[in-house]
Amino acid sequence: MDPFLSLLHSFSLSLSDNELSSLKFLCRGKIGKRKLESVRSGGELFSILLEQQLIASDKVSFLEELLENIKREDLVSQLKQFVEEGEVNAPDDQPDVHEKRLLKAAIEVICENVGREWKMLMRKLGISEVKMDRIVAANPFNLQEQVVQSLREWQKWKGKDAKVTDLIKALRGCNMNLVADRVEQKLNTGTT
User: Which domain holds residue 24?
Assistant: First the structure.
């Protein structure tokens, strides 16, 4: 089964009638009025968007914009996660298997230890304020999830250039030496 269609189906099931109406309204410039009037579910709307090639598994910006407009940050997060987890990304833009394992271990340690100072680290890594604000809006009461999502955002942005050494350097640049030491210690004791 196509993972993108599964994702769209789950989105469709979670949309309220008001949200569907809002989506239809937002699509007015792209889809004819008569077609929109016949739409009764999110699935039908997504089918039209797929047919008109406005969305695809490797073309999600319009869908993301729609979901942001109806304030469904939870669905935006799911969509971003779908993209990040390689369903869309080309394999040659991913870190190699060894580096991926190291990154996973490093991210785990950072998430456990950084806490409220995570934004300073993200700035050092080059993540924009807008992206951080979106992450906070999507996970308003979950500090750990904010850290995880921002590190995923960094990893997606860097692609195959995402390196553990960059994380350690950024940690030290923020005077988070204890966390940097813990990352190095974790990497030296078993993940390598």
Answer: 3-87
Residue 15: how many other CB atoms lie within 10 Å: 21
> pLDDT, tens digit, for every residue of 138-190?
888 888 889 988 998 888 888 888 889 999 999 999 999 999 999 999 888 76
Phi and psi angles of residue 59, each rounded to the nearest 5 degrees, phi first = -145, 80
Q: At what angle do helices 73-82 and 3-14 cross, to 10 degrees?
A: 170
pLDDT of the residue at 95: 58
SS (H, E, C) 36-53: HHHCCCHHHHHHHHHHCC
> Of 87, 107, 134, which residue constitutes the final position of a domain?
87
My answer on whether 102 and 79 are in the same domain is no
Query: Taking the model in full, what pTM does it have?
Result: 0.52
Mark which of 87, 104, 138 sits at the end of a domain.
Answer: 87
- Looking up residue 147, the CATH number of its domain turns out to be 1.10.533.10
Determine the pLDDT at residue 43.
92
- Is 121 in contact with 174 (CB distance < 8 Å)? yes
Q: What CA–CA distances, in Å, run from 11 to 46, 74, 75, 83? A: 10, 10, 7, 15
Report the SS3 class of residue 59.
strand
Looking at residue 178, what is its pLDDT? 94
